[in-house]
Automatic annotation (TrEMBL), chains A, B:
This is Putative competence-damage inducible protein. It comes from Alkalibacterium indicireducens. InterPro entries: CinA, CinA-like_C, CinA_C, CinA_KH, Competence-induced_CinA, MoaB/Mog-like_dom_sf, MoaB/Mog_dom. Residues 4-171 form the MoaB/Mog domain. Belongs to the CinA family. SMART domains: MoCF_biosynth. PANTHER family: NICOTINAMIDE-NUCLEOTIDE AMIDOHYDROLASE PNCC, NMN AMIDOHYDROLASE-LIKE PROTEIN YFAY. It holds the Pfam family CinA_KH.
Length: 426, 426
């Protein structure tokens, strides 16, 4: 099965909006085993849209169109296609009711042409829009399939995930269900991970296995087409087992949950609280942990101590530590962890200190980072990292590796290259 | 003049990479008055690439190709085009020397096919790659122009900015120079700003005026084609004057500098230091101010106090304030600003408190935010905001509006809806 993705919108051709839909749709279609050889973008121009569709019809079985389903004059996709394919536009009552209800509950008057968003092709299968008003649809004509999707990614993505994929699997690929699972990894690069599981990726056509990098974290998505959900999950379980045998140490969770989310869940489950004293990361670690819900239950506060003076005066890191070992040292990282833990009555204290770069700090080269961890009655420790010369990359890597250290401590997993320090409190 | 953008890369068709080049190139070409009606993406497949080029030749004068200039087998663009256009590939010595020097200075052995990156078409004009190895080029054949650019955005973007635009202006548009200026605004939406300067935007063809939104900040780019730089700048000055007459209050700076950068510059110039006590923003304000160079000179540290208990115990906000007015109050915001300022010996203290949402806090609805400012001997004040229901948007807006408040205070600009509090220190 081959597909082509046509994006419609003058704003794309002016560069006002980056087209993320094509990449998203390509990933989703690849997971179904559908091949994509062309992305095409045209403006809000019926003639050029029809030309693009004609061309796609010569190349593929499934044409996915995104954009142009809204209520304004510019939204030409439905009208243009209805004319071209010679199909009637009829009212989709469910969507019409939704539009009326939406406007009743808001202060806005409903513009008359808002109803345009409720029109669908006769004999098409509507695709529900969970996050917006314009209904999507799938039409099959002469063995060729046309999917019409809204342009805004926050409407298109849920429509694809929740309705289009099922539609494709059931009605086009004649399979029963599609099951997919995302596994998340940290601590190696996308290339390293891909190489390690290369045999699994290459030898699989169902389930498919795809590797993506996302801001330092790596995701592996396993997608199975199957008779029923149980069978799909069984097939995925097998692949997951094979992957886990190769990469047990780097796996940290499933689905959408990023490392920070996994830590938050672990802390919540165990009723633990966390705090940090940040130097090179300047608030980024704490900001990550508070960027979502439920932060109040795991965090009462934390500290940014950029200068040596405030590390001593506010955080109470001893002058002895600062003078003897320097602020970029395992000793300072551990003391920052311990003192912040005491100051904020937390179960876990994290100290982050280092040279973000690009210039060196005293003898320390950029990218030198020490992260200290103080956890309840366990012996505090520090771990040394060396990342590189890019300042913001160093800050990000410091935050992520601090989160990973917390995860390993909470799971009692081994941690390499730690520097222990101070009394064993046990 | 019409152009078409062809992106080459199987990674784009698999959705592994989002295509940002097409939007970037479209913006740059629009600024030159060049119209773009199609974006097309094909994989690393010579046949489909040639088909795309043939089609573009029927539609436009300038074909911009991105991707496929690297040293691997997949990098088909140069070889495919050389065959198709029947031109010779010759060695570009400057690039060859650069590649040799690069490998001498690194530990890597130079792979033999690395030299492929130094090949250009005979009679083409090379485009220097300031941030990578693969040279770009511009070829004119039968009055049609072909620009070949590298795929990685961090190589393509400087090549376009520094070389391709000049090439287009001088050799294709027969103009002498291209001058452009970016103005930055905060405090209104893209739509509001666009409406206010609509007459200027619509009536201009040279200079062109384009409005973009970028994460809460709005940029206006003015681009002039002119005989020489002076003439170009004069034309831009005039437009800038017109815009400033309409929007004096929202303008905060030029070029790439974001609001946080402008604040950092202002603080550095005046030798002032800043700190903050953050509640709902959880470190995001301080993280923004430390995300770039030179943070050490303007910031010694700061505090995150999420819980009421730590606002009192660590930051020393009085129990009276917390009990009488609540933690989400102008009084608490001001006290957070003043106490953090004292704790970190800073010239400016900022207090951020509010309900990030999505759930309410006591009687306060999500999006309710108070920002307090304590600045030297001036009277401290607080400003009330109401943003909305989206948690992370509320956090971001709180950070940006706090930065804007600091800018206004430093510039002695009027601030509306402030709540004054406490003694006048003068």
């Amino acid at each position: 099965m081959k597909a082509e993705i046509i994006s419609i919108g003058t704003e794309l051709l002016l560069g006002h909006v980056v087209n993320t839909n094509s990449a998203f749709l390509s990933r989703e279609l690849a997971a179904l085993g559908v091949e994509v050889y062309h992305h095409v973008t045209v403006g809000d121009n019926p003639e050029r849209l029809v030309d693009a569709i004609k061309q796609a019809e010569q190349r593929v079985d499934l044409i996915v169109l995104s954009g142009g389903l809204g209520p304004t004059e510019d939204d030409i996709t439905k009208k243009t296609l209805a004319n071209y394919l010679d199909v009637d536009l009829i009212l989709h009552e469910e969507t019409e009711n939704k539009i009326i209800t939406y406007h009743k509950n808001s202060d806005f008057n409903m513009p008359e042409n808002n109803q345009l968003q409720a029109l669908i092709f006769a004999d098409s299968r509507p695709l529900t829009n969970d996050t917006g008003l314009a209904v999507g649809m799938m039409l099959t004509q002469n063995n060729r399939h046309y999917a019409l999707l809204p342009g805004p990614p926050d409407e298109l993505e849920p429509m694809v995930e929740n309705y289009l994929k099922e539609e494709i699997v059931k009605h086009i690929l004649d399979e029963q269900v599609l099951v997919s699972r995302v596994m998340r990894f940290f601590g190696l690069t996308e290339a390293q991970l891909a190489e390690k599981i290369q045999d699994i990726v290459v030898n699989q056509s169902n389930p498919t296995v795809a590797v993506y990098a996302n801001d330092g974290e790596i995701t592996v998505r396993i997608t199975a087409k199957a008779e029923n959900e149980e069978q799909g999950n069984e097939a995925i379980d097998e692949i997951e087992k094979d992957i886990m045998e190769i990469l047990p140490d780097y796996f940290f969770g499933y689905g959408d949950k990023r490392l920070a989310d996994v830590i938050k869940d672990m802390l919540n489950e165990r009723s633990l609280t966390i705090t940090a004293a940040e130097s090179l990361t300047g608030g980024a670690f704490l900001s990550d942990l508070t960027s979502d819900l439920s932060a109040g239950s795991i965090l009462e506060g934390g500290l940014i101590t950029y200068s040596a003076d405030k590390k001593n005066k506010v955080l109470k890191v001893t002058k002895e530590t600062i003078n003897k070992f320097g602020v970029v040292s395992p000793e300072c990282a551990i003391e920052m962890a311990e003192k912040s833990r005491a100051m904020f009555d937390a179960d876990i204290g994290v100290g982050l200190t280092g040279v973000a770069g690009p210039s060196s700090l005293k003898d320390q080269i950029p990218g030198t980072v020490y992260i200290g961890i103080a956890y309840k009655d366990k012996q505090s420790f520090s771990k040394h990292f060396h990342f590189g010369y890019k300042r913001n990359r160093n800050r990000r890597l410091a935050v992520q590796n601090a989160l990973e250290l917390v995860r390993r401590v909470l799971k009692d997993m081994p941690i390499e290259n730690t520097i222990f320090y101070g009394e064993d409190k046990k």
